[in-house]
Amino acid sequence: MNRRLRLGAGQLGPIAQDESRESVVQRLISLLHQAADAGVELLAFPELALTTFFPRSYTEDISGHDHYYETAMPNPATQPLFDEAKRLGVGFSLGYAELTDASVDGVVHRFNTTILVERDGSIVGHYRKIHIPGHEKDEPWRPFQHLERRYFEESNEGFGVHRCFDGIVGMATCNDRRWPETYREMGLQGVEVVLIGYNTPIYYAPDPGQNALAGFHNHLVMQAGAYQNGTWVVGIAKGGIEEGVESLAQSCIIAPSGQIVAQAVTNGDEVISAVANLELCANFKETLFDFARYRRPEMYQRITNQKGVILP
Ligand code: CDT
Predict the structure, then answer these.
(1) Facing residues of 117 across strands?
(2) What is the torsional sign of CA 39, 113, 17, 68?
(3) Which residue in 13, 139, 219, 276 has its CB near the most CB atoms, within 10 A?
(4) pTM, 2 dp
(5) Catalytic-labelled residue, pool 47, 185, 192, 270
(6) What are phi and psi of 232, to 5 degrees?
(7) Is 174 an active-site residue?
(8) Does ligand 1 lie within 6 Å of residue 160's CB atom?
(9) Contacts of 98 (CB under 8 A, 6+ apart)
């Protein structure tokens, strides 16, 4: 069997605070056209791909940022993207801020969400970010804020995977990529493609000594996750200088061997693509990383029973 899927990353440059959804959607459609011309069948867009990275600014009342959230997907502003993707036969994933309807469970929830759409326009599923980094309260000592923990709830829905695109596809979001459990949860469900959008400021206020390693760490974690679980990984940045804050670009496509097979060369809107042979996953899943044969879950009890470090 030969399952070849052309994967694409639709990297975005900065989105200004006052850029309209309609304008951003036109940029996404332009990337979609470039991807379709390159034969891409699944194009992944970044985390929070419709707005500026608003958790970098503080509002006393958290609803002060509600205009950055979507209450439905698709909606009138994003429908043209869904329509054009369907017309072109290109599937896609799209990250956005999600505001849920209080009528569902009596509470409004704010999630950092990614939706996955098949080539025929059908919605395959969504993923709500699990590892929420940063802080809850305003910290004026920082040159800019990282208030994701103020503006997003941690999802309790887990890392689901989906049978689609003739394979098994999962999603994760930005900070999730730094945690090995993210990939292993999906690896244990046979994942073959993991799509990970990110907004990663290069300046890390708690320890600026790490700034110079931002690109190295970005690739390190995704390459390790790919190899250790025998899966393709697509990392998709919103990069460049947005509202005065520089974020990492370096979007990439990684093979199950852990090798980078395509990488963005700009900090702006750019499409990269690669043909992913999904059969290559088995080379790793059925040899060194034959989980059923070699894993020792009974030896890993702390991983699910314990959160922080307990010293001996
Ligand atoms: N968006 C996101 O999750 N960014 C984080 C920044 C961490 S610094 C607070 C990341 O892990 O890239």
Answers:
(1) 92, 123
(2) positive
(3) 276
(4) 0.98
(5) 47
(6) -75, 145
(7) yes
(8) no
(9) 69, 70, 73, 109, 110, 111, 112, 113, 128
Q: Is 270:11 a contact under the CB 8 Å cutoff?
A: yes
Report the atom number in ligand 1 closest to the C-alpha of 177.
11
Ligand 1 centroid, distance to 134 Cα (angstroms): 7
**Ligand 1 geometric centre to CA of 175 (Å):** 5
Residue 135's contacts (CB-CB under 8 Å, 6 or more residues apart) are: 145, 146, 147, 149, 150
Q: What is the pLDDT along the chain (312 residues), one digit of tens a residue?
A: 679 999 999 999 999 999 999 999 999 999 999 999 999 999 999 999 999 999 999 999 999 999 999 999 999 999 999 999 999 999 999 999 999 999 889 999 999 999 999 999 999 999 999 999 999 999 999 999 999 999 999 999 999 999 999 999 999 999 999 999 999 999 999 999 999 999 999 999 999 999 999 999 999 999 999 999 999 999 999 999 999 999 999 999 999 999 999 999 999 999 999 999 999 999 999 999 999 999 999 999 999 999 999 999
The ligand 1 atom nearest the CA atom of 55: 1
Asked if residue 170 lies in contact with residue 192, where contact means CB atoms within 8 angstroms, the answer is no
